[in-house]
């Protein structure tokens, strides 16, 4: 196994959550996960892949990048495995060394960070417009956007934080 992938497994077993060895595949984490239907690997499968040292398969799939970090999985686990924390750790490590294979996910992360670097916070209309522009599908999801805007769930005018330069400096480290 590539040293990069084996070091992630080692760190999880040693520091992030040694309790992962107690996972007995009951599936309760997956049953509660709101995104398990669109994950290429379900949360319980990811735990099995970590145990088996198949970190590369996890990073090459979409699951850890779509995870909301909502922690439902972790709160349901009868063995107290910190599933969300493990997934977040793998995601962060993959991002640091640019190992993300799913192109659309990479684009989303980069654009999101760029926007945070400019305004100091997330700006959904800009993110949607930017993604549509990059993908060449200008009207993608516009029907949903109109409904959301109509209900004032998101603001068309971006809000800026006071210390934009400070945020921008932090963001630049990850771009
Ligand atoms: S709920 Fe816990 S023990 Fe059950 S499959 Fe998920 S991680 Fe494993
Ligand atoms: S933290 Fe991620 S994996 Fe866990 S339930 Fe939420 S979306 Fe699913």
Describe this structure in words.
The protein is an all-alpha fold and 175 residues long. It folds into two domains: 3-96, Alpha-helical ferredoxin (Fumarate Reductase Iron-sulfur Protein, Chain B, domain 2, Orthogonal Bundle), CATH 1.10.1060; 103-172, no CATH class. Helix content is 59%, strand content 0%. The chain binds iron/sulfur cluster (2 copies). One iron/sulfur cluster binds next to helix 6 and helix 7.
Radius of gyration: 18 Å
Number of domains: 2
- Count the helices. How many? 11
Oligomer: single chain
* Mean residue pLDDT: 92
Q: How many beta-strand elements? A: 0
Structural class: mainly alpha
SSE string, helix = H, strand = E? HHHHHHHHHHH
Low-confidence stretches: none
Question: What is the topological layout?
Answer:
Layout: H1 3-16, H2 28-32, H3 43-51, H4 55-59, H5 63-66, H6 72-76, H7 83-96, H8 103-119, H9 124-135, H10 142-150, H11 164-172
Bound molecules: iron/sulfur cluster (2 copies).
Short description:
By secondary structure, the chain is mainly α.
Defining key terms:
mainly alpha, 2 domains
């Amino acid at each position: 196994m590539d040293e990069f992938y084996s070091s992630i497994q080692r760190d999880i077993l040693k520091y992030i959550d040694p309790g992962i060895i107690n996972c007995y595949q009951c599936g309760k984490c997956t049953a509660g996960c709101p995104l398990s239907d669109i994950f290429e690997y379900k949360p319980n499968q990811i735990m099995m892949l970590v145990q088996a040292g198949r970190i590369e398969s996890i990073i090459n799939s979409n699951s850890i990048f779509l995870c909301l970090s909502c922690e439902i999985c972790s709160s349901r686990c009868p063995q107290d495995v910190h599933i969300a924390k493990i997934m977040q750790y793998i995601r962060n490590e993959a991002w640091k060394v640019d190992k993300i294979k799913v192109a659309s996910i990479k684009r989303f992360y980069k654009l999101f960070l760029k926007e945070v670097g400019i305004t100091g916070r997330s700006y959904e209309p800009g993110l949607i417009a930017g993604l549509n522009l990059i993908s060449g599908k200008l009207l993608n999801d516009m029907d949903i956007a109109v409904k959301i805007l109509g209900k004032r769930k998101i603001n068309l005018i971006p809000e800026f934080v006071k210390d934009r330069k400070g945020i921008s400096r932090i963001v630049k480290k990850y771009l």
